[in-house]
Amino acid sequence: MQHLFKYFIWYVLIATFLCFSLLIPNFSSPTNIQNILIGGSVLGIMVIGQALCLFAKNLDLSAEGNVSIVTVIAAWLMLPAAESTFAQAGGLGVELAPVIVVPIMLTLGTLFGFINGLLIAYVGMNFFIVTLAMQLVLRGFGYVISEGAVMPGTPNSFNFLGGGQLYGIPMPIITMIIVFLIFHFFVRQTTIGRQVLFVGSNIKTAQTVGIDQKRIVLFVYAVSGFLAAFAGWILLGKLETSVPNLGAELTLNVVAAAVIGGVSLKGGEGSLIGALAGVLLLAIINNALNLMSVDPYWVNAVRGFIILLALIIDAQKQRFLNRI
Asked: Residues with Cβ < 8 Å from 307, sequence gap 6 or more?
């Protein structure tokens, strides 16, 4: 029974894929499978940071705001100045090269995550309030900088990670796989990775053996901010246009993917491989609903139902494991 709970998400994932393959023509074609993986790439990068926060018994609601602000700033720094119109705006006019802009993006994303961790771990503020407020602040600044308009035309060298290919394989897919492998190794094979899980599962014991819980919380939020900015780079490169609401609703999907994949909201339990399965399940469902031309409002309803189902399964799993 424990084995069933541990790999439950993979059984659901396979069953869902097979079901849609029978119902939708060409759903299982190589081209559509590639579309599914590309569609889940941004979510896949962000779910790693969210999973680390959940492992440490925390939650990051600021990720989508982070994506919004770093992509707006990136476009603002790279694009030439132009007179703002009702629907379109230019950049600052400095036209910095992507090799300079990308480190700025990643540094800013990490800094915003670091501030979250600082306020939560060292000031003692509630993680829900802090990260929600940070999301609103970052998105608000994104609107201020962009004046609420789109900024199209990011350079090709910047767009490669989001829209390019390597040996015929889209870069978002390659990047997602590499990042997942790196962080899976990090969580399972490094001391600080195991400490993240330990802090989430038993804070008192972790403190007894000398683990600095505050340092761990600061670390996971900084990593979450970095990965949100990294995902923003992929997303902006794929769209080649910055808008201030870029990344909207990503937080809900990221949390859903992590919980669906078996990462417990109570901390200290789950795996990044399970979180990846949650991402793939959501990507498969989104792709199938789009192919069936389902009304977007129904798509949101389905997502909400999946989240509720995941929470029910998580609660029942905890009750079962406690009994045995």
From this structure: 252, 255, 256, 259, 260
